[in-house]
Write a structure and sequence with these properties.
44% of the residues lie in helices and 0% in strands. It contains six helices and no strands. The protein is mainly alpha-helical and 102 residues long. It starts with a helix and ends in a 14-residue tail after the last helix. It has one domain.
Length: 102
């Protein structure tokens, strides 16, 4: 999921997936701090199953990344850094994935 978000944000994404990941600068009229840091728009949903949808979880995951990871442009370097970060945090699967309501 993180790699698909990365590819979309940095222009390497598959066309069929890139419409899920819309930068905040394309949604908001004003420049805000998060929109300047490669953050993505999280669509509003009304149901719990909507919260689990890829179009919601992808941007939520991307927006929780540290800024130093979000700005890495090379996909291989991003994969290496995200893997190292997750192994340092002992993340297994999606256990530590944020599940707060939006």
């Amino acid at each position: 999921m993180g790699v698909e978000c990365h590819k979309s944000v940095h222009g390497d994404g598959n066309y069929s997936m890139s419409h899920f990941f819309v930068p905040l600068v394309n949604v908001r009229e004003r420049q805000t701090r998060p929109s300047q840091a490669n953050r993505l728009h999280v669509p509003r949903v009304k149901t719990n199953s909507g919260m689990k949808a890829f179009r919601v979880r992808g941007p939520v995951f991307w927006n929780t990344l540290a800024e130093n990871l979000a700005v890495i442009e090379d996909c291989k370097a991003f994969k290496r850094e995200i893997s190292a970060t997750m192994s340092q945090a002992n993340v297994v699967g999606n256990q530590n994935f944020p599940t707060t309501k939006l």
